[in-house]
Design a protein that fits this description.
disordered N terminus, single chain, globular, about 450 residues, alpha+beta, 5-stranded mixed sheet
Length: about 450
């Protein structure tokens, strides 16, 4: 199915449109999407660790040899917990005495000299007592004696970020040397997404690389990894109060590479109760209680239920999202949310393929849309949905509104009020995002 129409794109000044660019969309081939979903899944039958989660980001630009990260990726990626930083990691990771209040930056990692830690158990334990984060203003919580929970959550985040950064820098620095000489050895896990995977200190590390040529380059694979982080941020905010659980995650850029670090979860290929681990060939919706929670969470994000797979199973969110009920702690976990937001229609001037994997609509735009949207619109996962044409048209209409109304109105009403865009700096970036505009349109 194809459609094309004139859609003017406007410059950030709002003075003149760049050009009257044609755009078109196609339902991406199911075979290509199946390959993507299969190789990028967080686990398979041989892999008992899960991917996809979010809590923080870290970027080290020293000796950076690769493409600059898209500013779009990071505007939202730092907002889950503003108190997090990468400045603290102590004897919790190393088992030794802590000499100073802050971790030493010259700590070295030697083979076998790190201590495994159950990050997920600690995080979930804190979150069980931290529901006030979503129900009370911070000052009310502090006044009601919740300072200990704030401190515990902040400290755990700092420890996780520091550990993830430290181990990731070692892994990246040694990625081209023989395995027998690596300080941290690769782990034999199922799946081939991003190449080798590593487990160190209770953290799973995955490279964001385009090893299958699916994205059109590593830079686009890095964007998809950033969407994993942003997708979790959205679900974390609306899903945690509903009893959905998520792991810790950090995205580390170092020497031109991007690595996703996440806490190991107590789930496996046998614990899945929702979504599809194989690009829609098998779709689960086995637990009515979990299904209802996902529907409530999706409704808050203005995402509509839709049908996935031959059996037309109703899913809220992307079809390749996964919900699990842990056989160890009985908790509901959600993973794999890189495609949580609907894709943008592909411009005819954009020769890049599979843009539905990394060019997504901003969550602010989706939430402000007059009608809810399907995460799987314009993708092969919706091929069996009898309402797929309606889902596709709704996303096309939203993109038309973005190009013809949101961007021009923003340019006229907001940018003209800023005397110096250079002086505005990060404030300008935030204004774009709050209006639902990706920076790729500037």
């Amino acid at each position: 199915m194809e459609a094309s129409e004139q859609a003017p794109l406007y410059s950030s000044s709002g003075a003149q449109p760049y050009a009257n660019l044609n755009y078109s969309y196609t339902e991406e081939s199911f075979e290509a999407f199946a390959t993507y979903s299969t190789v990028s899944s967080g686990y398979n039958a041989e892999d008992s660790s899960a991917s996809g989660s979010s809590y923080s980001t870290y970027t080290d630009s020293s000796n950076y040899e690769g493409p600059s990260p898209d500013q779009d990726e990071w505007e939202g990626a730092e907002s889950v917990n503003e108190s997090q930083s990468s400045s603290s990691y102590s004897s919790y990771a190393y088992g030794g005495a802590e000499d100073d209040a802050k971790p030493k930056n010259d700590l070295k990692v030697s083979a076998g000299q790190y201590v495994e830690r159950n990050w997920n158990a600690e995080f979930q334990n804190i979150m069980e007592n931290a529901q006030f984060l979503f129900t009370e203003p911070a000052f009310v919580s502090a006044a009601s004696g919740q300072n200990d929970n704030f401190s515990a959550l902040s400290l755990l985040a700092e420890y996780f970020i520091y550990a993830a950064k430290l181990y990731a820098k070692v892994i990246i620095s040694e990625m081209h040397i023989p395995v027998e000489h690596k300080t941290i050895k690769p782990s034999k896990l199922g799946g081939v997404a991003g190449g080798e995977k590593y487990i160190c200190g209770g953290i799973l590390f995955k490279f964001a690389l385009d090893i299958r040529g699916l994205y059109g380059g590593d830079a686009y694979a890095m964007k998809a990894a950033a969407h994993e982080l942003k997708g979790l941020q959205c679900l974390f905010q609306v899903g945690t109060p509903l009893g959905l659980n998520f792991p810790l995650m950090s995205v580390i850029d170092y020497r031109g590479y991007r690595v996703v670090a996440l806490s190991l979860l107590p789930i496996s290929s046998t614990s899945i109760i929702y979504g599809s681990p194989d690009a829609g060939n098998t779709v689960h919706a086995l637990d009515p209680d979990f299904n209802d929670r996902m529907e409530q969470a999706a409704a808050k994000l203005n995402l509509k239920p839709h049908k996935v797979g031959v059996r037309q199973t109703i899913i809220c969110g992307p079809g390749d999202i996964e919900g699990h009920k842990s056989q160890e702690d009985g908790k509901y976990y959600v993973v794999d949310y890189a495609r949580l937001m609907p894709p943008q229609v592909r411009l005819e001037t954009d020769a890049q393929r599979n843009t539905h994997l990394f060019q997504l609509l901003r969550p602010e735009l989706v939430q402000a849309n007059p009608v809810p949207l399907s995460s799987d619109a314009l993708t092969g996962l919706s091929r069996y949905d009898p309402d797929r044409k309606i889902h596709n048209e709704e996303v096309v209409d939203t993109c038309q509104r973005l190009f013809k109304e949101v961007i021009p109105n923003f340019a006229q009403k907001v940018l003209v009020e800023i005397e110096s865009t250079l002086a505005a700096g990060p404030r300008l970036c935030g204004l774009f995002h709050r209006a639902g505009i990706n920076l790729r349109h500037t």
